[in-house]
Predict the 3D structure of the following.
Amino acid sequence: MLVDYLRELRVLRHLTQAEVAEAIGRPQTYVSDIEKGKRGLDLLQVLDLCEAYDVSLPAFSVELDKRLKKLVKPSRRANR
């Protein structure tokens, strides 16, 4: 979910992985590994990516929360 949203933001901003990598001071393979789910992220790394995508951390968090709630609701109903 998180990596899908990060990739979506990059694509919406018309940025390549290389451009994002340069903006955050990392190699392109770092961004690629994130988007493939091969690399975990801490909050500071998410903040760096939010800055590269020109989205505030609060706005990012709200949207991610909405997406997570959509995933959780059907499974909760199934357990009733």
